[in-house]
Amino acid sequence: MDTSQFPPYTVPVHMRFRDLDAYGHVNNAVMFNYLEEARISLLGQRFYAADAQQDIQFLVRKASCEYLRPLLLTGPEVLITMRISEMRGASFLLDYAIHDNEGTEYARAETLMVCFDPVRNRPARIPAWFLEHLAQNTGG
């Protein structure tokens, strides 16, 4: 499926002092929390309401992160830019760039998301209502 209809989406994520490790930079595991916050922002509250009504779940099947440089607590937030780079029948790949306002990139990550039918206990095709939601809510 052509993913160009879903432009990149950038969201600020607040950093906290507790996110730091003994070396004074954001702990590697915390980066996955930042990705989750950004993903929730992309999907939005409307998605979760629709998700509950449709009996469809979107699960993380695989997650990876490449750390490029230490992320220090130099400001109140970091930016995460996401884009859907690949979409198949029951899954889509989200690419992330974790960066600051000046464009310095600290990490690149990706998550493979799977559409799941909990009643049948198996993957399900990505529903049209979800594609419409993405088209309306990306580009921010």
UniProtKB/TrEMBL annotation:
One of its GO terms (molecular function) is fatty acyl-CoA hydrolase activity. Pfam families: 4HBT_2. SUPFAM superfamilies: Thioesterase/thiol ester dehydrase-isomerase. Signal peptide: none annotated. InterPro entries: 4-hydroxybenzoyl-CoA_TE, HotDog_dom_sf. It comes from Spirochaeta africana (strain ATCC 700263 / DSM 8902 / Z-7692). This is Putative thioesterase.
